[in-house]
């Protein structure tokens, strides 16, 4: 916190003139001003001394005002010295920082499972996907086998009705198509049921 001014040349000159002219300057004020006036470099003057000088100038009716004296002066701001930190406080703060970092880490990783196979899911998710794919493959395989078996049965059975091969193939294709459509209808209804739709 500022408690003094660094005085300029104008301050020194004006105050010297005043002190040379005046003989009634109080001794305590003169003693406080004398080291400032004798110095050549930067000197500082305390606020208390400036107040005394201002009171003296006002009481004795001098034409010089304080703001004119301090025109080239600047506030002296001492360098801030940081007080040493309490070691107990530092240790406590480090402990709190570590706890907060650990809590943040736990919050970020609470959804992470150590059984994770890849970025896309856990082993349980992978197992469900395999079962789903397996069911789809078995359904397609079952459909193909049913249609092929129907075609084969219709072709073999049609030899008792038709003598020409073309007629036997056409009748087998018609039978396989009817069974295939029926199988597709059942498959679609089953999938709708699995998805929860009526």
Automatic annotation (TrEMBL):
Compartments where located: Endoplasmic reticulum membrane
Keywords assigned by UniProt, alphabetized: Endoplasmic reticulum, Membrane, Transmembrane, Transmembrane helix
InterPro entries: ATPase_Vma12
Recorded topology in the membrane: Multi-pass membrane protein
Biological processes, Gene Ontology terms: vacuolar proton-transporting V-type ATPase complex assembly
GO cellular component: endoplasmic reticulum membrane
Chain segments annotated as transmembrane: 135-157, 169-188
Keyword Membrane: yes
Highest taxon in the source lineage: Eukaryota
Pfam families: Vma12 (PF11712)
PANTHER family in alphabetical order: TRANSMEMBRANE PROTEIN 199
Identification of the protein by name: Transmembrane protein 199
Native source species: Clupea harengus (Atlantic herring)
